Each structure stands twice: as structure tokens, then as C-alpha cells.
């Protein structure tokens, strides 16, 4: 089977978990994904099947849009709400909402991030998260990213929701931590949902549980032909 399959990744599964489920369902090994989503994250996961696997190098360069909810006052070892709490800061009762909005609005344009230790970024051929599991911290160089837009939704302290349109390689957990730091506090992500990855939007995405109930011929109907994109 050849083509691109857009999945609405469920929470708590890794991107590789989704790939494995489809490999077993279709009895096909040549399946990969273009753009990892954290286990806590949901939304658009682009899978490539068969001949379409050759497109990964192009597909991973796409910019993305996320819906995010940030919790202020907590810092975890993973950068999201599932991690071990390593710092807490009391949120002032008089935290100025306008100040919070102005701070978030500064996260725009060319920025730098330090990739988190709990990530799939590789060091000497191994993902950083494997070093993190061993209690090791690897020095990481800051990397350049671009925030095209950041639109603030609800601010209900300690939570702030926003939508962000960003370049490839942007770590949303790190963005949440950086926003918390900029407010003189700390922060972590408690919700991450990818609603767009390049040309693919959430309305195109199939629900994984439903898809796994179909036979291969029915699944084939959900494929985007690889030659329709370039």
C-alpha cells in the first residue's frame, strides 16, 4: 500500500506506537511518520506508506499549527504535566493579565530554543530521552526557530491557552517553559494538539480506533496519493 495517511493521534500513544499498529494491521513494514508528536499530544500525525516513505525529508520541513494550554507555576522534568515536578512558584494573586498578554505577544518571529532532554533529538546516534532515562544531561546548542503567529485564547490563571503557528523543529513544551520564565514564574504544557502540519489539517484526519476496524481496502480509501503533493 502506497500513499499518505493522516491520523488524529490519540493521547498517551507515541508516534511510533501508531506506526506499529498500522504495520500489524496492514502486514506492511514500510510505514513511517513525518513529524513526531509527544505522548501527551494529540492531532495531525502524517504517516507515509510504501513509496511515499521517500517523501519524509520533504514532509518534515513543513510548518505546523498547535492548540496549546500552559500551566503556570509548575516546572517538570519533561516540560509537560505528566513529568515529575522539579520546581514550583507561587503565582501572585495580582498577576496582571495585560502583562501576561504582552509577554506572550513577544514570542513572535525568529527565536532560539534549547532542545529538551526528553526529546527524540539525537546525540551520537541515540535519542536524548534515552540519556535522560539514565539520569544524564547532554549539553545542547540553542537552535533557531520561527514563530509566525501566537494567538492568545483564554487566560484563566494558572492556565493560559493559545494557538501557535511555528516552524519545523519547534518544541512546544520548551515554548511553554520559556513563556513561564518570561513571566518570572515557571510553566509546563498540559495540552498540546496539532491541528495543521503543512497542507494537512485536522479535518482530514482519521480516528485511529475506527481505522483499525476497517479492512485494508477500506483503509486505502483514506490515503492521499504521494504524487498529488509535489
Keywords:
14 strands; globular; alpha+beta; 22% helix; Pseudouridine synthase; ten-stranded mixed β-sheet; 230 residues; two-stranded antiparallel sheet
Description:
- The strands form three sheets. Strands 1, 2, 3, 4, 7, 10, 11, 12, 13 and 14 form a ten-stranded mixed sheet that branches. Strands 5-6 form a two-stranded antiparallel sheet. A two-stranded antiparallel ribbon has the order 8-9.
- 30% of the residues are buried.
- It has two domains: 90 residues, 2-Layer Sandwich (Pseudouridine synthase); 133 residues, Pseudouridine synthase (2-Layer Sandwich).
- By secondary structure, it is an alpha+beta fold.
- The protein is built from seven helices and 14 strands.
- Helices cover 22% and strands 35% of the residues.
Q: How would you summarize this macromolecular structure in one to three sentences?
A:
It contains 7 helices and 14 strands. The chain is an alpha+beta fold and 230 residues long.
Tally of alpha and pi helices: 7
Give the number of domains. Answer: 2
Q: What proportion of the residues is helical, as a percent range?
A: 10-25%
Mean pLDDT over the residues:
92
Biggest sheet overview: 10 strands, mixed
How far apart the termini lie comes to: 19 Å
Amino acid at each position: 500500500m502506497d500513499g499518505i495517511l493522516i491520523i488524529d493521534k490519540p493521547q498517551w500513544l507515541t508516534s511510533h506506537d501508531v506506526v506499529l499498529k498500522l504495520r500489524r494491521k496492514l502486514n506492511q513494514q514500510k510505514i513511517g511518520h513525518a513529524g513526531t508528536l509527544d505522548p501527551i499530544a494529540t492531532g495531525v500525525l502524517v504517516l507515509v506508506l510504501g513509496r511515499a516513505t521517500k517523501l519524509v525529508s520533504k514532509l518534515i520541513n513543513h510548518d505546523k499549527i498547535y492548540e496549546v494550554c500552559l500551566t503556570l507555576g509548575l516546572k517538570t522534568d519533561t516540560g509537560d504535566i505528566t513529568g515529575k515536578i522539579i520546581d514550583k512558584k507561587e503565582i501572585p494573586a495580582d498577576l496582571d493579565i495585560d502583562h501576561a498578554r504582552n509577554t506572550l505577544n513577544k514570542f513572535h518571529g525568529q527565536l532560539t530554543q534549547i532542545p529538551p532532554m526528553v526529546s527524540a533529538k539525537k546525540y551520537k546516534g541515540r535519542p536524548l530521552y534515552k540519556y535522560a532515562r539514565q539520569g544524564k544531561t547532554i549539553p545542547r546548542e540553542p537552535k533557531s526557530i520561527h514563530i509566525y503567529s501566537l494567538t492568545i485564547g483564554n487566560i484563566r490563571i494558572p492556565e493560559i491557552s493559545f494557538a501557535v503557528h511555528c516552524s519545523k523543529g519547534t518544541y512546544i513544551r520548551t515554548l511553554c517553559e520559556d513563556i513561564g520564565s518570561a513571566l518570572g514564574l515557571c510553566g509546563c504544557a498540559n495540552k498540546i494538539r496539532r491541528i495543521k502540519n503543512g497542507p494537512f489539517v485536522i479535518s482530514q484526519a482519521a480516528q485511529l480506533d475506527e481505522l483499525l476496524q476497517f479492512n485494508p481496502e477500506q483503509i486505502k480509501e483514506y490515503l492521499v496519493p504521494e504524487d498529488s503533493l509535489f
